Amino acid sequence: MDKFVVEGGVRLDGRVTAAGAKNAVLPMMAAALLGDGPLRLERAPHLSDVRTMLKVLEGLGCEGRQEEDGTVVLETKGEPNVVAPWEQVRKMRASVCVLGPLTARAHRAEVSLPGGCVFGVRPIDVHLRGLEALGARVTIEKGYVKTEAPGGLKGAEVFLGTAFGPSVTGTMNVMMAATLAKGRTVIHGAACEPEVADLCRCLVAMGANIDGIGSPRLVIEGVERLGGATHRVLADRIEAGTYLVAGAITGGRVRVDDCRPGQLAALTDRLREAGYGVERGDDWIEVHGEGFGQRPRPTDVTTQPFPGFPTDLQAQWMALMCRAEGVSLVTERIYPDRYMHLPELVRMGARIRRQEATAVVEGTPRLSGAPVMASDLRASAALVLAGLVSDGVTEVHRVYHIDRGYERIDDRLRALGAKVRREEGGE
Ligand code: EPU
């Protein structure tokens, strides 16, 4: 298994271009099961999750490939197969996004339940409730969700909230199903994340009829069939945010090009509060610090649904606050157990206590490089960022987690000046 070796002590300086958003492209790929013609997704990132989704779709009878420039081309010829097995779904929770499209197109599906993950239970009850509201019979057998809708799905009013706010992939699944249902579906409590809106735009390009895009109330008029389309995937705001925090943590200057600054307002607001300069244009954001060794002002964050502070940037923010000049509170409201990075940061000298869903981070002037274990995608990114400002060498093991969601992060950090290399032979 590969590991990253990070040598701390360098102020990052430079520009990086945002890749396409992982959490938009994966459900969009599943949408290829809904349409008749080829679906071209431009600016798809080169990620292992994209390759996993290509395999899941191949198993369902959808032919696909990723071209060198990233473009993913997919086509489902004829009726899809309807079984998505555990061996594939367990590798990537986002595979559950095939459930809605299969039920809509083939009127039945058998998709393995994705199971838990390192940061909690992660149920899919809302996805299932939504499909039931559209008329599917849903049963769970031998670890699989089975849906049946012999006469096809029918539009309905559904509420998709959960105890922790709206569900992102739940909204996507039900919305995709509704595009081919008979009549009108109204989704209340829809997730407003930009990735949901981008999927809506892709579906509209395929011929779907969706109103209220970007809002918590989506109105979908079902159509007889969807066709192919060409769609450019929106920029990955979480990747962009990670590079901005990398710039800040090193007191450096990092500009992210080809992104949507408005979608990162919660982060840029917190960065300013923490004492960094932030500038932005129509499609770029730049963060600048006062030089290596700069300690941020302690700045609290609470994760919330969009447009609040994203849970997918919580770990990176915690890494930044580890060196703050005082105590900050990081509260996780989406996944109260998403704290796998906490004990690893403590191994690097951070002072963090957890009190239920809140981490109390007492800034310290010095972090110390150590071998640490990546446990999930964003936790791994946080450990790399902490390594950039630690004394000595940090080895981040199990980097396959990072490769799921960051395209060539080692090369791109190196281009900003970081001393990061990938080596074989990790734990
Ligand atoms: N929830 C339920 N029931 C459901 C679905 C969700 O109770 O049926 C709860 C979850 O347990 C959680 C909250 O609702 O407490 C929100 O979960 P959501 O369904 O929105 O999460 P998701 O759709 O499974 C996506 C991203 C995650 C990101 C979350 C939150 C994809 C493929 N994944 O997950 O991304 O953290 O939304 O924004 O889009 C990542 O990229 O590292 C990642 C984990």
From TrEMBL:
GO terms for molecular function: UDP-N-acetylglucosamine 1-carboxyvinyltransferase activity. Residues 6-413 form the Enolpyruvate transferase domain. Keywords: Cell cycle, Cell division, Cell shape, Cell wall biogenesis/degradation, Cytoplasm, Peptidoglycan synthesis, Pyruvate, Transferase. It is found in: Cytoplasm. It is an enzyme of class 2 (transferase). The active site is at C117. GO terms for cellular component: cytoplasm. GO terms for biological process: cell division; cell wall organization; peptidoglycan biosynthetic process; regulation of cell shape; UDP-N-acetylgalactosamine biosynthetic process. Phosphoenolpyruvate binds at K22, N23. It holds the Pfam family EPSP_synthase. It catalyses: phosphoenolpyruvate + UDP-N-acetyl-alpha-D-glucosamine = UDP-N-acetyl-3-O-(1-carboxyvinyl)-alpha-D-glucosamine + phosphate. The modification 2-(S-cysteinyl)pyruvic acid O-phosphothioketal is found at C117. Its EC number is 2.5.1.7. Pathway: Cell wall biogenesis; peptidoglycan biosynthesis. UDP-N-acetyl-alpha-D-glucosamine binds at R93, D312, I334. Transmembrane segments: none annotated. It comes from the Bacteria. Cell wall formation. Adds enolpyruvyl to UDP-N-acetylglucosamine. Belongs to the EPSP synthase family. MurA subfamily. This is UDP-N-acetylglucosamine 1-carboxyvinyltransferase. It comes from Rohdeia mirabilis.
